[in-house]
Write a structure and sequence with these properties.
Elements: H1 16-19, H2 57-72, E1 86-88, E2 94-98, H3 101-108, E3 113-120, H4 123-128, E4 135-142, E5 148-155, H5 159-171, H6 176-181
Antiparallel strand pairs: 1-2, 2-5, 3-4, 4-5
Family: Belongs to the class-I pyridine nucleotide-disulfide oxidoreductase family.
Pfam families: Pyr_redox_2 (PF07992), Pyr_redox_dim (PF02852)
Cofactor: FAD
Length: about 210
């Protein structure tokens, strides 16, 4: 049984209509600009009530810090809502950072992207005889920006730990060339991202025969 609890934005009974702050009547979410500013210039919103933003506690904390620094510290740094590392802690973890492939195609056009992917087999699975080619890694690259990595996805053991590390590299402008130049730690799951050479468009076989 899978329970998707979700969250409600409790914004309808706190007086926002009195000062003219607009909300999405369907879900109570608050539309804001890229500085978390509502339609009323002196009212800001952060966290899970933002329309179209991720409902994650670390995102809200980061956005709040940056907002305070902009308002009172002379900063101009805005919260990056795209390159947010996140993980689904299912028995086989899924981690991602950046854009999903569908969103990347929508934003950049399929012809401007190169998608590299591979199945992989964790070393510890070979000892227990678990199924091969269950784990998966994928990166989405913008061909017209030096093959910069704009999407990172991994399905496998400890995906959260793997994703957290690569997220920092993505924030630094990680490219496919830099990944290729990075020496992998053998045998780790993360190593697969340093050896990817098969593009999705090629249609080549991505199955692995060993760790």
């Amino acid at each position: 049984v899978l329970l998707a609890i979700g969250r409600d934005a409790c914004t309808r009974n706190i007086g926002l209509e009195t000062i003219g702050v607009k909300i999405n009547e369907k879900n109570g979410k608050v539309p804001v600009n890229d500085e978390e500013q509502t339609n009323v210039p002196y009212v800001y919103a952060i966290g899970d009530i933002l329309e179209g933003k991720l409902e994650l506690t670390p995102v809200a904390i980061q956005a709040g810090k940056l907002l305070a620094r902009r308002l009172y510290g002379g900063s101009s740094t805005k919260c990056d809502y795209i390159n947010v590392p996140t993980t689904v802690f299912t028995p086989l973890e899924y981690g991602s950072c950046g854009l999903p492939e569908e969103k990347a195609i929508e934003e950049y056009g399929k012809q401007n992207l190169e998608v590299y992917h591979s199945l992989f087999w964790p070393l510890e699975w070979t000892v227990t005889g678990r199924d091969n080619n269950t784990c998966y890694g994928k990166i989405i690259c913008n061909k017209h920006d030096n093959n910069r990595v704009i999407g990172f996805h991994v399905l496998g053991p400890n995906a959260g730990e793997v994703t957290q590390g690569f997220a920092a590299a993505i924030k630094c402008g990680l490219t496919k060339e830099l990944l290729d130049e990075t020496i992998g730690i053998h045998p780790t799951c993360a190593e697969v991202f340093t050896t990817m050479d098969i593009t999705k468009s090629s249609g080549q076989d991505i199955t692995q025969r060993g760790c």
